[in-house]
Batch of 4 targets.
Target 1
Amino acid sequence: MKLHPVLEAVTRRIRERSAPGRSAYLARIDKAAAAERGADRMGCANVAHAFAGIPPSDKFRVVAERAPNIAIVNSYNDMLSAHAPYGSFPQVIKDEARRHGATAQVAAGVPAMCDGVTQGTAGMELSLFSRDTIALATAVGLSHDVFDAALMLGICDKIVPGLLIGALHFGHLPTVFVPGGPMPSGLSNSEKARVREQAAQGLVGRKELLEAEEKAYHTQGTCTFYGTANSNQMLMEAMGLHVPGAAFVNPNTELREVLTREAVRTALGILKARRFTPIGRMVDERCIVNAMAALLATGGSTNHLIHWVAVARAAGISIDWNDFDELSSVVPLLARVYPNGTADVNQFQAAGGPGFVIRELLDAGLMHEDVLTVREGGLREYTREPVAAAERGLAWKDIGPSREESVVRPAGKPFSPTGGLKLLTGNLGRCVIKVSAVPEDRHVIEAPARIFDSQEALQAAFKAGELDRDVVCVVRWQGPQANGMPELHKLTPPLAVLQGKGHRVALVTDGRMSGASGKVPAAIHVTPEAAAGGPLALLRDGDVVRLDAPAGKLEALVDPAEWARREPARLTGEQADANGHGVGRELFAGFRRNATMAEEGACTWL
């Protein structure tokens, strides 16, 4: 299938823009790949230390027989439902490695925090920076340099991007990502949202709200809505970094274990076939564009407009929001998964899942097929779904047509001809809006602004009845340099209540929403952020703000001469002090100080 001209043009532009950085990156990983294996070139004391803790039979294999040694980087903890299943994975991986004459070692345990736990609390201000902490921890583990390949065990919001950034800094290693799968469906996401809105209005109490939440988040696995965690898994499939079809198989099932064992066989297969497909070679500009297309086609998390910029930079590739915006103009929306629909990820998987979407995009010329993947058969392997076969084996079958067209549709009959993501520009800066779930009559909002310096202040104003009108709520000082750029999910229920009353409402912020704004228009990631002197710091209560998604505009309708005279506000006093203290925020002062802007990936390591 001939590539769509816009996809081809965006890819070419990225390649040309990235040429110097990509060339230098590839030279570094080629040099690392050409070096003698670590266990052969290190001193005897180094080697003894590296393998002192493993069984004698494994030690003999890796040292005397020079058997492949696989690094396991694990984000296991038993507080996060999504990561709890990983507790048993290392033993399964080690067993499968031994069956094939190889060894495996847990090289690193990386932190994994849950945004669902920290949402609306001070701990959420560590969330974005946990991504780079995970990348650092991955690098520390792999720095022992005695590994021939790596398996990355992670699934949730910042964990997969962090692991990927870390892995790309060891881009000479063949690397396979190993998902854990979503929890089985509980209380529907739409019913959960309804109860949250009732709670915001005081119609139900804490007991009823907690009961609904516990029915929704009820066992091991990722949350079942299509937020950042599950968007991660879709992108891993589109980039060819998983065993094909592994993303949305539930934990603690036979097929889940077989897929984990297949990840070991896949990594060893790359080594034994001497196929030069280290992760740094695989993740090129075509691979990054494929991930962007898959994100847009499924209405995935807006967090990836930050994370995938950082991921690309780790591979020497430069992308920006213009690239996302142009791709969004031609990539159709093929999936409706909550919050962009009523289905959860289990229903998405049952309807055809990632394989259906990837096939449709490939056939429409909206993904690059000529890319390297961890599988010898290339990206077409990712258009089929796995089934367990005899003796812990696997087979793959064709997905066929959509099994539920209210959930996934073919490219010729999409939910929308565009990806539902828009870049907004104007005198308030650059930002993005996800309109795939926003009613068309809400794509343009013009109303007086109410300025807030925290999400708590907005919630207090809502409870006091001060927002019962048309209003653009501006929440500033929420960017990477101000307080770590937390997600502002707690604002969704009150804003949805205001919109439900018929008011024309929008949110404008230099913070994040992850697409969880749902049906409320939200201009997010405003760059430059207020703390860096960005134009949100010039806004005043009562200024009329116009958000025009079709035109791609976000503007304060203020006389230009008046606008030019204004001095930017400063965050001072108790609120400013609070952003730097408590729940370990002091330790992240350097991260806040060094963070790049959101459109630059909010990177702290450049």
Target 2
Amino acid sequence: MRVLGLGGSHHDFCAALVENGEVRSAVEEERLTRVKIAFGLGPRLQRCLAADYVLSAAGVDLADIDLVVANDFINPVYTLRHRDRVTWMGHHLAHAASTFYTSPFERAAVLVMDGRGSKVTRDGEPYGETITSYASGPEGMTVVHGQQGRVTLTDQRSEDPYEDSVGWMYEAVSKAIGFFTSGGMGAPGKTMGLAPYGTPRYVEELGTTYALVDGEFRQSTTQQIALRAMVEKELRKAGTTAARDEVRADFAYAVQEHTERIVLTLARQLHERTGLTDLCLAGGVALNSVANYKLLEQTPFERIHIVPAAGDQGTGLGAALYGYYTLGGHAWQPSAQPFSPYLGREYGAADLSAALTEEAGRLSVERPDDLYGRVASELAAGAIVGWFQGRSEIGPRALGNRSILADPRAADMKDRINAKVKHREPFRPFAPIVLADRQKEYFTTDVPAPYMLLVPRVREDKQRVIPAVTHVDGTARLQTVLPQLNPRLAELLTAFDRLTGVPVLLNTSFNDNEEPIVETPRDAIRCFLNTEIDLLVLGDLVVRKVVQP
């Protein structure tokens, strides 16, 4: 049985193909259109490039597909080409399926938290999903508790906020302190990165803009207005640029603090309702990796799984898996192997050669006998390396196949990459990648973190060893590297460890600021030439820039 899943909402459109329970391919529309989160594409959205991509990657045609599934909160323009075949499902259900059916758990509690989801009508007024929890097992997924928030504007646009939405609160503060994407969406990832630079100055005041009642998050329209007004007032009062920056950092601190409190409360309530000890997370709030780690520290849940495409870019994956397991009537049985996020298409030697030929006069290419030793020595000498390997990873975080890598021991490396490559705010942190069997030497947890969605502390004695990936508060957004998931990245880390005694590298996504992660060899070469990346590795090839006369 083959199932094509289409996903997204009014942003983060995506597609996935599941065949006999195996995820054959998945990709986000942004990787193909080169428009960040595929927001504002207009009529171009109906091209639905991601669907063609996943079919081609698996070597099948649309005629070979048994079922097409999409969530009912998606912009319908994206499904126009497939409208006669689409089976619809709920938005939060697609999130839940994306994380449970990629987990190692036979049974688990599932918590979905985002800005907004499928619309419903109550007493003649529009509402939508904001927080939904499930108990899941071989027999399927059952709703344990659901919250719906009232739409707080009257024109009912797809981006209108809902009441009682944790995701909306975090994004509202992000926008109010000036963090937007190029398309006008909020940029909560920046807020999470800024939060450790702040103080508790606004924690108490921000707490007056919502309530936790019987384990539910409540925030009315009046409180939403008060929240935005609070931030705007404090920014106006700040007389200097430095004072405004302090206000922004302090509000980032406050909204992060309250989001953690809310998520912990919701998780504890879910544990009480289900008695389950394994937890799966999805929805945009599940990308808050700081809060995720605290769930392990401060709730009764013993194990946690977050799908790497936890935002709307994972709902196509969830739709395809739901189509196979629930609509297709197949019983769930977890795999003994960890879920692989590397689901893009494979680019062969001919693809690499064609892309390199287009820029032949600007590039030199070699194939070293010892690729890993050569790249490790370049990294140890201070080079910033674009690392392009195999199939691209799903989700907003680069996991080692479309990555920029660097030496974490260099104290100035964070500033170098932010200024010269990523062209972004200097406070933005970078993530460490570490060999899984060496994790405990450097970090305060041995919990696997293959998808860069947990933030533990860096051990005190190692913070000076890897300063480029140690955040200002002594934490790091960790990725553990398993040879069975990414053997080439593990080989490189091993080579770097042999050379330096440190089995850790700095890892960030292979892209420039406000650009999607590179997908093709051409994308990688373009980014390499337009930034101050020193070295590009395409498969087994080492590529350098030719100095122009």
Target 3
Amino acid sequence: MTTDSRTYTPQQLIEDILIDSNCISNVIVTNYVGGNFNGADQSYGYFEANGSTFPFQNGVVLSTGRLVHVQGPNTTLSDDDAPDWRGDADLEYVLNESNTTNATILEFNFEAVADQISFRYLFASEEYQEGDSSTCRYSDLFGFLIRKDDETRYENIAVIPGTRTPVKVTTVHSGIPGSCDPINEAYFGSWNGATAPINFNGQTAVLTAIADVIPNETYHVKLVIADEQNYRYDSAVFLEAGSFQLSTNLGPDLLLGNNTALCPNETIWLDASQPGTNSYKWFKDGSELLGEVNSTYLAVDAGTYAVEVIIDGTCFSYGQVEIEVGINPTVFDTTLISCDYNLDGITIYNLFDAERDITNSNNNLTLENFYLSPAQATSGTSPIPDPTSFENTSLNQMVYARVSNANGCISIAEVTLSFANNSVVLPAYPTCDNDGTNDGVTTINLNDLETFILNQNDVPNTATTTFYGSQTDLENQTNPLSGTYENTGSPYSDTLYVQITDNGVCYAYTNINLIINPSPELAPDEETYYCLNLFPQTITLESGILSGNPSNFNYQWELDGTDLMQNSAQILVNETGVYTITVTNNNGCSASRNITVAPSNMATIVDISVIEASNNNSITVTVSGEGDYEYALDTGYFQDSNIFTNVSPGYHTIYVKDKNGCGIMPQDVSVLGFPKFFTPNGDGYNDYWKPIGLNNLDTSVGVKIFDRYGKLIKELNAFGTGWDGTFNGNLLPSADYWFVTTMSNGNDFRGHFSLKR
């Protein structure tokens, strides 16, 4: 393609290139706006196909960039801007958009002798991005705005045929996989590769803009295109030379792609009437329909129909419409089966249950409604008010389904209403009273019950079930049960009422008896202990059966989830962990309980700490082990604390007992002390003085006794008999005496005591 921004003035572009017709008069260009490129180029001008594949040989082009960048091939990005190049308020208002920029505008007035004008155009844009989701969101704007010259309100005629939707990237494309579906694809032209004759990534098909006008009235046209949001990614609109002409409106194309095609045996009157003294010629697929000279023509089959109107013997007006013929939906007669719950020959049907069979599961077909007669179904009158709850009036009554396709073509299918006649007798369903009460009342999982029913030989495994609590609810199809059911009203046995449906059709109705068997009654979970110090001795675990003969049950023992392969009522164990016993009775009902065997052990005494030779002697015992321990001193009571206070001097025994019965650990301990007095009177009581509670291993202890003046009275062996209160064979008087006890580690204990006579 080549472009030319200099040869033609705006007046010439409109009057001589776009219109070029004596039947459209008083053509006056009133305004033109484009980008300022310092005189080097324009954003509008003339184009020629130049032997390329572009569908217009020549014409007028308006762009949001430089005209030279309109020319192919499509190897660069047209992305132009210019100083102070603003948008257009009229375009924004009519298209209900905002924030336009880089607007190119050609405005002109005209008059026509016919009541309609049209011209052909094509929109192209860099914002067509094949495979890119941006195509779904962004588009420049353009409009062909027209109004009477003495009015202010514009109409946009650059729209999708038969709608008011503006033509732009986001309303005309073939879809972006994963981002947006095709939209108005019939009006999309192509994605453009590098060899395209124009420098844009995509383009629409050739479209026609049509406007109704009043003959010989002045109209104002504003051709405008603008970038939206920013100047990036230019667009252009091409107007075919000489295509602005008088037009005859034969209505929109009737196309399969638009779901507007005629249906078989459907006809349509084409009306080309124009004011004035006119003559008419009709054509089909390019060939004149000889003898057809009226202003109307009855189209009965597919084809491209055209009309040539000579207005007042002078001006030619052309009209064309493409008509395609669709097909009626393919539908299938069927029989809808329901259950006659009370056997009176009358029941309720959901007629839409037959839809899958009628349409053969074709999602492109729509089942509109059901009717009592073929005539009503064909005309679409008097539909059945509530097809989801239709009560028949006779055996094998017939109703009629009206089915349409996307093109609106209709077919009628016959639906015969019949009854299910399948005899299903279900065995009783045994279940267990598993809530721990054994009162004959339990909760039943209806999904498990359905699985039980579908496993019966005379029930299709493709069926589904619906449960009811009473025959009345089944007949009325009310209060269906779901999830779980508790037989609160009938302990140990109950009856549910079942509707069996296969492939959406009632197959049978029946009932099923529920038998609730008791489960074994077991003692609650418990915890016991195993003494690790007694390994490999064993302890006995009991199953915990509270009633019944133990020989009438089966047993399974597990340790921490591992099967021990033992099946007796009691077992011997010497390993800690969680033991689970599952007991099963003759009805197959089971109950389980857990016995946690925790480790325990005799204590190991790690340390005994003694505070001695004080006013408050104490002993602290430190132990280790897996048990729970308590402590006693000599023959006293056991206590939880490991500390004993106010301990008398002398020799003691500490006892550490495991509360879980794993044994008692004893330990001897001595507490050093010094008597406060002695009475050497020969009565056998307190006749000697010496330290109490010395460790027998401390053999080097020495004791010295002094009188009040510091005179050494006696030096004795701490492990001997003691001092008898004499000095050199003489009795010493009652008085206070002092001592120094030196231990083997060098520590000294000093104090005093009284001698009383």
Target 4
Amino acid sequence: MIRFAAIAVAFLLASLSHAAPADRVDPSQPTLRSPEDLILSEDGQFLLTANRGTGTISIVDRRQGKISSEWRIGQSIVDLLPLSDQRFLALDSGANAAILLKQNGDVLDILSRVQLPYSPVKSDVSSDGQQICVSCLWPRKLVSLSLTGDQLKLQRELILPFAPRVVLFVPDVQSILAADNFGGRLAIVDPNTFTVRHVREFPAHNIRAMALSPDGTKLLFAHQLLNSLAVTNENDIHWGLVMSNELRWVPLGHVLDAEADFYGNGFMHPIGEPGKGGGDPTDIAVIDDLQAVVSMGGTGQVGIGKHEAFGLFRVSVEEHPTAVVVSPEKDVVYVANGFSDSISIVNIEQAETIGRISLGSMREPKLVEQGERLFHNARLSMEGWMSCHSCHTDGHTNGLSSDNLSDQSYGAPKRILSLLGKADTAPFGWLAVSDTLEEQAHKSVETTMHGRDLTDEQASALAVYMKSLTLPPPIDTLQATRNQAAVAHGRQIFLRNNCIKCHAPPHYTSPEVYDVGMHDKELNRAFNPPSLRGISHRDTFFHDARATSLRDVFEVHGHQLAVELTDQQLDDLLQFLRSL
């Protein structure tokens, strides 16, 4: 009996150490996959897509030009990272997990899985294949994973001063680069100690992609740049002065040198030209040392550009391209279309789309999904320069200011507000000029973006999508730093100073406008108070972004406190605010 039990335990342990097959899915069943990432298999025969909408991975035989299989891996797969020995890593943002998989033709096996902090978004691997870095958006964390055999292990976590998205190992100089998801910051991290060497800052927001040139001398960025000095009128939009979209080549050595000006010493490909904008770049694929392709998620196009050659050869693909991959032969580019459940094939030399591969049957989008598509659609704006997502990155905010007619005047730029958790916080805008999100959608597209008139159905779809944008957990929860006693004391300070007059629970705002001793450049003095929920995820404050930290709101600007606070009282008040 004892011998039988020992054999049973040994069999169980052996079975746990072997790969487990993934669940096969029928691609003919109508759904919305929403491919978010795209990679080539190690042998170059297959393309694999990370499907955000279904938690599946689609395998496409690129030589046959058709879908081979689809596998359910998790809840929402957003990133794929090629490794060695036909293995790759998948990030599941729905289940907050990293999943190690092995591909054998059109079959996938799950090798191991590790739990991650909230909201993993991107990953990269060291040149020796033993260290993987994962960015986790809302906790502002990088995670270091070790890969030994077929086992993943979480080693260390690093908190950054910003919310990271794209991460990139630079093998020759032993560095990891981590780019800001919302603003223009770049952290240079030591992969051995997993500490920040320094943080660079440059004029950018919405950094969606980074790539190294094959010779390792140049770093490529795809990002946007909002000019708060420009006015959102037809002239400034037409000339690309309000919102520019950029593919920028910069010397890698200048990036790593904390004293060097890498931005000024780089070369910029403008993604767009007067009359033909290129809103919302999403990905970069390097063709060779001098050529790269960039996808334009907002206009349904890709652009092929050569270093130090002005302009891009633009090619139309399908709706919302999210990822691009160059073939091993360097003759075509494969493009994952996020809202079309397809892969476009673009000939590099001819600069034209030559084929399409469907990922399977699609169902009709629901109203909230229609709104998501409109939100990311730069063709709603004049000449395609920007989408709603351009300023409200991932539904949040880039923290910058824009001079538009949302306050019924030009000349007074206002900080862009987050849309997360905006449902039930009417009226909207700094001057409370919109009573509903439908009304605000009309104003944003028609007055600020100078696009075509929205139909009421489109405005309703946008409003439904904006209402679906929920807040992430507070930063002190995500970073496990909450001090309950300090939060409770901070709440009492909040109440004693009558902060609830303007920021009333449960939404921590109110429908009125208030004079808080500030004015904009048009001498408006009464503003609608933004909700304090989710304030820990913001980096700038007040209508003109004059405060660059929550502490400065009180220490530097003395915002609406009835009495002067001690250092401890201020610390506790900030603890309470960060808990909302």
